[in-house]
Design goal:
The complex is a heterodimer of chains A (about 150) and B (about 140). The longest helix of chain A has 16 residues. Chain A is built from four helices and five strands; from the N terminus they run βαβαβααββ. Chain A is about 25% helix and about 30% strand. A five-stranded mixed β-sheet of chain B has the order 3-1-2-4-5. Chain B is elongated. Classes of the chains: A alpha+beta (about 150), B alpha+beta (about 140). At the A-B interface, strand 1 of A face helix 4, strand 4 and strand 5 of B.
């Protein structure tokens, strides 16, 4: 849609950043050792390596006139803590997170897994998640939200 | 379409208190943000304008014009102010990041004459921000 046509209501999203440190190894057991090395390079080194991940969570909803808030940060922080930070921080994604026993823990797949875990946040609508794997790499996922990337 | 973003920073104080709540309820809902004498933040504001570059100037809009609008509408109103008491647009509202971003959107949107205001992002801290835009504004991918 072109700007200036049918511009809708003003919408507000709340964004919050969290940090966790975890290790991973990119390896697909259905491929040969050579193919794994060729495909994943250093990320295929046998004992894995780690990152300081930055997770950005964006939620939307009505701003409650009584509180001025889309969601109380205490609720959002607690939910993210339980759903993502506790199970992921200082863990091996491959070995400690069941979702990655059979799925390569690329940050693309990590986005999808974290989105799934946060989708049920009861106090606001999850719009999208963005993960910085390093300061040079970031990934975003908005589920089936058709407007999730329209920002 | 091209997006252009300008960033400014301002410092302000605020507190969260709803006079319809009891003191206990204010404390429970707002926590430390309810401390009676307020507290402050260094806010960072990112203002994004969408448009086609003018074929003569190569600009979506003149950054000097945007800078002047931000100075007049945001800096002079909010910088080194107590938001609850000194910004009339926030009277009767809790000055959360969501509400301040919305107020700033309302102040800026009619002032942008070249291009369209696309997004206002207000950081209260590096880890907390609110985004404001028109639903379905579209035209640009990712943030």
């Amino acid at each position: 849609m072109n700007a200036g046509t049918q511009r809708g209501e003003v919408k507000i999203e709340l964004g919050r950043r969290y940090r966790f440190a975890a290790s991973h190894r990119l390896h697909n057991p259905t491929l040969s050792e050579e193919d794994n090395t060729r495909l994943y390079g250093k990320c295929n080194n046998p004992y894995g390596h780690g990152h300081n991940y930055v997770l950005e969570v964006l939620v939307s909803g009505e701003v409650d006139p009584a509180t001025g808030m889309i969601a109380n940060l205490t609720d959002l922080d607690g939910f993210v803590e339980r759903a993502v930070l506790d199970p992921f921080d200082h863990k091996s994604l491959n070995e400690d997170v069941a979702a990655f026993y059979d799925t390569v823990p690329t940050t693309e797949n990590l986005c999808v897994e974290i989105f799934k875990r946060l989708k049920s946040f009861p106090k606001a609508n999850l719009e999208r998640v963005r993960i910085q794997e390093t300061s040079n790499n970031s990934f975003e996922y908005a589920g089936d939200n058709p407007e999730g990337f329209e920002r | 379409m091209v997006l252009l973003t300008r960033k400014i920073e301002f410092a302000a104080s605020h507190l969260y208190n709803n006079p319809d709540f009891s003191p206990e309820e204010n404390r429970r809902v707002f926590g430390k943000c309810n401390n009676p004498h307020g507290h402050g933040h260094n806010y960072t504001l990112e203002v994004t304008v969408a448009g086609e570059p003018d074929p003569v100037t190569g600009m979506v809009l003149d950054l000097k014009d945007l800078k002047e609008i931000l100075e007049r509408e945001v800096m002079q109103r909010m910088d080194h102010r107590f938001l609850n008491y000194e910004v009339p647009e926030l009277a009767g509202k809790i000055p959360t990041c969501e509400n301040i971003a919305h107020i700033i959107w309302n102040l800026l949107e009619p002032q942008i004459k070249q291009g369209k205001l696309h997004r206002v992002r207000l950081y209260e801290t590096p880890d907390l921000f609110a985004d404001c835009y028109r639903n379905g504004a579209g035209g640009a991918k990712l943030s």
